[in-house]
Structures
1.
Amino acid sequence: MTDMATPQGKDTARAKPLTRLTGKLPGSLYRGGEGMWSWLLHRITAVAVFLFLLLHIADTATIRISPEAYNAVMGTYKNPVMGIGEATLVAAVVLHALNGIRLILVDSWTKGPKYQKVMLYVVIGLFAVIMAGFLPVHLRHVFGGH
Amino acid sequence: MTTVERSLPRLLQTPPSPSSKRAPRGRRGRSNGELYGWIFMRASGALLVVLIFGHLFINLMTGDGIHGVDFAFVGGKWADPFWQWWDLVMLWLAIAHGTNGMRTVINDYTSRAGTRLAFKGALYLLAFIIVALGTLVIFTFDPCPPGVAADLLPAICTA
Ligand code: HEM
Ligand code: HEM
């Protein structure tokens, strides 16, 4: 395995005896559990949004070809399959952004590390609220009328 | 710096000190670059929340949402310098933040120096092209091109 391909990295071996002694390392982010999952989700959403952004600048650039060309490209964004894709993209952006704010607070707010787990639940809660507000409106645009 | 090193303050549950961001002694000629990168990821992230959430809200939640997005819609927005600058800052920050982040990801998954260099070279080239293209598009855009049917154009063209 490469250098740091997993969040546990190469110090898992060293951490093991300690874990056996204490049962569970205090604040053991990145050793499995929710810390590792939030790290993985942050990374997956980051790469997905980055790839979309490259494509998105290219599709927006067709606006310099002609109004008809741009409208044709945007037309492909308006079918139900793409509609689901847009909802997934928004979910990825919102999750990455909220967890990003959490990471900023963990690192820069003195009480951040203490509340990092609480903040993860806040992230999940806010994510649910935002998506509950967004999805009905977006899905109505995608599937309703027209 | 690797992911684990960057997250050490979190692992140890202590707030980071700038010195903890410095590359450990003995690492070949590393500087404070990683510290500035680390700060940049946080500063740009905070700004991007406002820019991107605003972008998504206006384009997906108002009016007809995705069905309302066409040349006339964009023409109406980009006729206003406010939205031109909004999009320009969003473009530059998102690409800089994303590229710096992808650099970390590449560092984590490549072990051979040659592979790493090739991926990063491709990344930087792509980032440069996309920023140049996006910037050019925003500022060379004509909301009322001549010889186009009026129903494709934003309302400002006929007013
Ligand atoms: C499905 C979701 C999205 C839709 C429908 C959408 C739509 C649009 C439209 C219509 C424009 C043209 C100008 C404007 O309206 O301001 C645009 C430009 C832009 N969008 Fe989005 N967008 C979406 C998601 C995103 C996301 C997630 C990002 C950031 C990661 C983003 C970044 C940008 C940027 C940087 C520009 C400027 C492009 C340029 O400089 O040529 N968009 N988008
Ligand atoms: C919307 C607001 C955003 C916030 C608050 C945010 C926040 C952050 C933070 C704090 C990090 C650093 C994580 C760490 O050092 O462990 C990060 C990493 C990253 N972000 Fe963002 N980000 C945002 C938007 C974006 C966008 C639009 C993109 C893509 C263009 C992106 C791509 C990345 C990448 C590729 C990484 C590296 C991931 C990794 O190392 O696992 N982010 N983000």
Note: Confidence is low (pLDDT under 50) at residues 11-17, 19-23 of chain B.
2.
Amino acid sequence: MRTIAFAVALALAAGLPAAAFAQDEGPSTAEVDAVIEAAFPGLDEEWAARLAPDETMEQCNASANVPSDAVFEEIRARAAGTIVYPDDGVLVGSWENGEKLAQSGYGMRFSDYPPRRENGGNCYACHQLTPQEVSYGTLGPSLMGYGKLRDYSEEAVKAAYEKVYNPHMAFPCSMMPRFGTNGVLTIDQIKDIVALLMDPASPVNR
Amino acid sequence: MQKLMTRKISTVALAGALAAGLALAAAAPPAGAQTDEETQRGLERFRQMLREDPWANPALLDADRGELLWTTAAGPKNATLEDCDLGLGPGVVDGAFAQLPRYFEDAGRVMDVETRILWCMQELQGVDVAAYVKRPHPSGGQPVKDVGAIATWVANRSEGEPFAPVLDDAAGRATVAMGEALFNRRSGPFDFSCATCHSASGQRIRLQELPHLSQPEEAQVAIAEWPAYRVSSTHVMTMQHRMYDCYWQMRMPQLEMGSEASVALIAYLVDKAAGGEIAAPGIKR
């Protein structure tokens, strides 16, 4: 109540219409969490874990995906700390397999258990990638010519690996899934997807 | 009665036409890329047929089934649903859907149409709601379950009216605020919230257009048609089922029908759609 009165006073002082502030306050995070838990009863531990945002998601939720500068840096640093690189340092696998993974939306839905095949990356759901595939989504930017536009440089290969592994290192509160950090794709699968983006022979670059 | 017969005949004719090859595979996988184009073609044919003959909508068969379920004694108490209060008083169906979701004194909570029908089945007929809620939605090709059929009929009886959900009391406002928080809440292995896919105009997942549901103009058009005949799964899909299916895409567990979260999301969406003209049952991809 006091916060509302204070907000109204502030709004008046700033010459803004008080109505913009005089709304009900939203529910607390604890109230929202409780409603979510009640909506998905009877879960085992692995499934129950999906209900709770981790620290990064908590920060993104709290800021409507526009974190303050300090939180932005915190998210970026945390994301960087989660990235695991291949032991042999080779970041590029097979683009042919990467294309298959980019096409596949299979995996981790409740109808996907027990698993019948490997998880996909579903990149085409959100990105244009190759001229051959016209059924692509537009939630993310077009990635056509991705490697070519970056001269296939070593830094660009590493950055692509990191963006797929955990996009929050480059774009805190990104809308793109954290394929590596969240265990959706394996290191070998991510290498194949990096090849799709960065191999000069890949249809993405031809 | 005359109208009912005509409706049945044209619906049966359309069902035949569909079976004869409108490319609507009964077992279409949800969101399968290969079937997108076929589905799109089927959808366009469908919409055109409906322009020529609105009674050809297969969902109207389910609405008829819903009406029959409403007026037929059933359950351990062997009662009909004719005394069910959908918000405008016991037995009043016309226009009731337009004013849902709303707070119900007797239940002590805000309810959407399906949650309310389920509640009436429990209270008036003595139906075991817990058992019903275990499998509340049909799989591809199966007809919509009983609550959904009744909801289709109830929604149809508000066709042409503007959405005017009763959500301006304290319980309603709290429910809409909860719905908004849930709409924007990210969790699960893909870090999705509803807003990931539904908070901008003109975006697509693959070729499927994604309505901007937090924007009234788009919400009004999209929400108005629910429950809807869904061409890709060849059955009526309800709003509770839609919520369940979007959580499935989000890699979340199975959303409980009638849960507070499900009602809050629907209340949030219908609140956004307020003023939009109800066109239920509609047709969806």
Note: The first strand of chain B starts at residue 102 and ends at 104.
